[in-house]
Amino acid sequence: MAQHGEALQLGWLGTGRMGAAMVRRLLANGCDVTVYNRTAAKAAPLVQLGAKAAGSCQELAGCDIVFTAVGTPADLVSALTGPGGLISGSASPKIVVDTSTVSADASAIVRERLGERGTALLAAPVMGNPKVVEVGRMTAAVSGPRDAFDTAQPYLNMLGRGVTYVGDGELARVVKLCHNLFLGVVAASMAEITILAQASGISREAFLACLNNSVVGSQFTQYKTPAYVNLDFEATFTARLLRKDFDLGLAAARECEVPMPVAAVVHQLIQSLVSRGYGDVDFAALIAQEAQLAGLTLESEHADVSDGLGPPAPAPSLSGLIRPYQALSVGRTRPRHPAQCLSATVRPSPSGIMTSSTRSSAAAWSFMARTAMTDGLSLPASSTRPWENVLSTMITPPLRTRGTTSAQYLG
User: Fold this and answer.
1) Strands 126-127, 139-143: pairing kind
2) For residue 48, what are the contacts with CB-CB under 8 A and spacing of at least 6?
3) Residue 226's pLDDT band (cuts 50, 70, 90)
4) Rounded distance between C-alpha atoms, residue 126 and residue 133, angstroms
5) Which of 125, 178, 337, 349 has the most other CB atoms within 10 Å of its CB?
6) Residue 74 clears pLDDT 70, i.e. is over it
7) Cβ–Cβ contacts within 10 Å for residue 175, how many?
8) What single-letter DSSP state applies at residue 318?
9) In 86-203, at which residue ranges do the beta strands (DSSP E only) sit?
């Protein structure tokens, strides 16, 4: 183990897709990491990046801090306290940090057994998937002894954009279950409304772009949009794993006598998804199931849609758009068209985010007039010119960023 003032020696138990992504971040930050996985081949790429390989769980016991990332409560109990497990020998680490999503009951059992050996347990279920980890967006709730958290926090922060200490005991387990219940409910609702929009003749790409630009859009809805638009169900988090979290979350609700009727319905939708053969693909397949129930046949829209994880695109300048329209009025005696008037004064609206979906020239004119009034402007009388093309080519591209007026043409 490390001496006072030295960097701590880290162990990592469980190098599946999620575990491996987190280990890579520790290695990139120069940490000394020893890894173990039951299937040794999954740990081999990490060894090539500079990790050390352990031959058993027990070999990790000499580390200062051991992180775990396993699939089920039974896996956690076995890997840490079972025969051949982490503390099956004479040595024990100072701290174990479990990043898995397991029940509070299983966590309490492990906490008690580790405590008998002088090892502190931090429950630190992470929120995100391997891709989210890779771009540094992962977060975690952490509970357990505060002094252990203070020791482990610098390393936990390396895994993402920060962690939140929520208290002692198993409180972090409850936070994670609540998080994943909400995630499933939002995903199911998102699938339903997207299929309603498609059944009404609106493309999934256009509808979700409008949704994501609105106040109800979120980092999660943006992240799932490519899967819903292009039907890419490569697993980031499988339906089977989400079902496990709903099982645990609803069990916790029963124990606390908290009714959860919405989550209960979504639980059955996820069960149906697994029963239909989607258990090992991403839970975004909820949209395929919803389409089947609605009698629709889905096809990929093959659209170039951002998942929102990259850096935001800079908002284009309006100057290049204003000049051409202003030039049209040179030498004319009649008033400029409304679009020309608006082009010289368009700016982010003081009212904040305002999104308009336009279908006709009347709707387009109404949108332009409302925007002008919001900004204290006046427009000349309406003409018969079709303004849909003006909106789609002049207004929409530069103003799609949050915090500005934006328009989404739907057809």
Assistant:
1) antiparallel
2) none
3) very high
4) 10
5) 125
6) yes
7) 20
8) S
9) 95-98, 120-123, 126-127, 139-143, 163-167
Q: What is the 3-state secondary structure (H, E, C) of 96-110?
A: EEECCCCCHHHHHHH
202 versus 390: the higher-pLDDT residue is 202
Alpha helices (runs of H) in 42-101, residue ranges in sequence order = 44-48, 73-81
Q: CB burial class (10 A; 0-12, 13-18, 19+) of residue 329?
A: middle
C-alpha torsion sign, points 384, 388, 392, 393: negative
Q: What is the mean pLDDT of the chain?
A: 83
* Token pair belonging to 325: 């329209």
Separation of alpha carbons 234 and 257, rounded Å: 36
CB within 8 Å of 70: residues ≥ 6 apart? 13, 14, 76, 79, 98, 100, 102
Give this prediction's pTM: 0.72
Separation between Cα atoms, residue 14 and residue 69, nearest integer Å: 5
Is 26 in contact with 137 (CB distance < 8 Å)? no
- Residue 240 to residue 231: CA distance in whole angstroms: 18
Residue type, 268: Q
Rounded to whole angstroms, how far apart are CA atoms 202 and 307? 20
Of 124, 119, 121, which is closest to residue 89 (Cα–Cα)?
A: 119
Q: Is the separation of the CB atoms in 323 and 305 below 8 Å?
A: no
Report the alpha-carbon distance of residue 309 to residue 207 in Å, rounded: 20
- Tokens 């202003």 -> residue: 326
The DSSP output letter for 295 is: T
